[in-house]
What we know:
single chain; alpha/beta; five-stranded parallel sheet; globular
Amino acid sequence: MRTIFWAGDSTVQYNSILTYPQTGMGQVINLYLKPEVKVFNTAKNGRSTKSYLDEKRHLPIIENIKEGDIFLIQFGHNDEKIADPARYTEPYGAYQDNLRYMISIARDVNAYPVLITPLERKSYADGVLQPSQHTEYVNAMKQVAQEENVPLIDLFTMSREKILEIGEQKAFELYMEIPVGVYPHFPNGLHDNTHLKYFGAVVFAGMIARGLKELGGAYADVLGEWTEEEVKLV
């Protein structure tokens, strides 16, 4: 039985009812998978490659990953936080070193590492989507993918293009835009450009599933039977 392992941040993590309707992509990727494929999600809110490894959150992956499994590696949101030394990494320094180390975890057991660029934030000003904060980390990850000959799914580009395509109001349905008095855990409402509602997690997890499908072979073999039209939600 094959397993998809996932290392990442809050856009990927598993959420409980205490933060509903916040949902991570790792919570819903199973919608696109064969029923027998398991998901082992170690992503955690607020983690960068540095803090994730410093906290040894990768150790359960080392203990459980086996030949033929897939290891999805998705970071960038928190590596860029230069004011926080516990999380910040230089994009062309420690960030790349940490990605290479995680790649080696998969390769050491003949599993399949996949790099995933960070999800774009929905950051608008006067109705205009603002320039991304992720650019250097996206480029740095792409460089590692090329140098290490590792498959890469460019979620950053796909998500930014989708936000531009559907516009600000429709994008609000994907992210944690919460009206006042609707959800008990957010009584005052919420304006959040980063975290996802269930619908958003399903939409963006679908982009990752399409990426796996395009890679073909062992990457596509974990997916269920569906067509592009059947999984197009927006």
